Amino acid sequence: MIKYVLKRLLQLIGTLFVISIITFLMVRLIPGDPLTTLYGIEDSDPAYMAHQREVYGLNDPLYEQYLRYLNGILHGDLGESIQTHKPIVEELANRYQYTLLLSVGGTLIGGALGIIFGMIAAVCHNKLGDSIVMVISMLAVSTPTFFLALLLQLVFAVWLGVLPSGGMRGLEYAILPMAALGLHAVGMIARTTRSSMLDVINQDYIRTSRSRGISKWKIITSHAFRNALIPILTAIGLRFGSFMAGSALVETVFSIPGVGRFLIDGVGNRDYPVIQSTILVLAASFVIINTLVDLLYALVDPRVKYE
Description:
Strand content: under 5%
Low-confidence stretches: none
Number of helices: 14
Helix content: over 70%
Shape: globular
Number of strands: 0
Radius of gyration: 24 Å
């Protein structure tokens, strides 16, 4: 187990190192210039712009810029925003809590509904209940997250007026964005649960349990579900990681100052330090979450061994 954890940690470090290089190079291929965006084109003085480029090190060779950026990461410094002149670590620390709240809430909603629907579909295989769940799952998977967000905002904030339409000044402000993320995840989790449950239900020990007179729902909840849990955990972990890295649209629709919205603003401003540091933090979150999910396998299924 310890060897496996150390191996995954080394893989995590290597993955983040590669991501840092790719991100660093890609942001410099974005058309535009951070200083031109900051000061404007018509009002900018060439001499002053040249001086500012020297100040920010934008005239240095790319390898020197990257080594300076990497040295900052190793010392816990993600740089300073060119637009706001604030430390990116502080910006991310203030915004990460909102993204984490939305991701956890969306995962809980999507996981609970997805598991329930998936179990119903497996029990009612090739029946009406199975067909209804599959239609709902297809709609959930096919509907873009931002459309769900706008629809929920229209119904519950505009028409009914029971929930706030945007911002983040309390827990009630997070209900609609969490629901938008969770409903989008229901489809994949339900389909994964259904497929995994069907594989387990057809096993010999399930038929043996039925012949012993054990109730159908006890077999489903106590025996079949636990043995089908690993693929379900994988699906939930992937959705949680994708929420952490991909909730920007929902944050934008609901005007939530999260990490995703911070990244979009950074791209719009051509703010190189913001873009590369935010992507690195989101990638680290995704990789760490999936590593933790892998480690959970041994807890939910004793048959899993790490060598």
